[in-house]
Amino acid sequence: MPLTDLPLSARPREKLLAQGAKALSDAELLAIFLRTGVPGMNAIELAEHLLDINSTLHDLFNASEQEFCAQKGLGAAKYVQLQAVLELSRRYMLEQCKREALFTSPQAVYDYLTIQLRGLQQEVFMVLYLDSQNQLIKDEVLFYGTINAASVYPREVVKAALRNNAAALILAHNHPSGVAEPSQADKLITTKLQQALALIDINVLDHIIVGGENCVSFAERGLI
């Protein structure tokens, strides 16, 4: 059934305008992004089909260009649109983080880091540099690859903190496995970084691990 044959209250655009975006299902939101369906499927049916074969929005949004474009109703133009939407989301979260005192707003940190790190196939180690008011100066990926005492160099973190005139840091990295629990290596490198940075009076406020949809905070666990 074409969307134009549906009651106004069942059409995604009209429903969003009347009730707000939160009232829409994943399929309805995706249908607005798709705009049109394909022969035999309206936009909502196509969205439901894509969610069925991808299991989650995460799988769909993190598909490679080749994987994305090979799916029914998708192509290079939609891939470009999606990447633009995701990047706008990242930049919006960055602006929000810059406006807030991060250590007093952990949810803003989790949301931002989840957008930045979730779905990456390679482990990366990121540092958030904060000023004396715990507001974000900038973030930076310093290391790539498996995180352990051999691959994360405290000297480089110290140099970067001084270069960015940071008063405090939040450390973060991802676990591509999807399991956010800290390893023994994670705990050891956190301790080494705390000790190195303490020598120059820079506090490590937290170390956050992103795994799949979950975040683990060292500060909340009492590990820092």
UniProtKB/TrEMBL annotation:
- PROSITE patterns assigned to the protein according to its UniProt record, in alphabetical order: MPN (PS50249), UPF0758 (PS01302)
Please report the stretch or stretches of sequence annotated as the MPN domain: 102-224
Instruction: Kindly state which keywords UniProt assigns to this record, in alphabetical order.
Output: Hydrolase, Metal-binding, Metalloprotease, Protease, Zinc
Q: Which Gene3D superfamilies match?
A: Cytidine Deaminase, domain 2 (3.40.140.10)
Q: What protein family is recorded?
A: Belongs to the UPF0758 family.
What NCBIfam families does this protein's entry cite? PRK00024.1, radc
* PANTHER family, alphabetized: DNA REPAIR PROTEIN RADC, UPF0758 PROTEIN YEES-RELATED
Q: What is this protein called?
A: DNA repair protein RadC
Species name for this entry? Answer: Pseudoalteromonas shioyasakiensis
Gene of this entry: radC
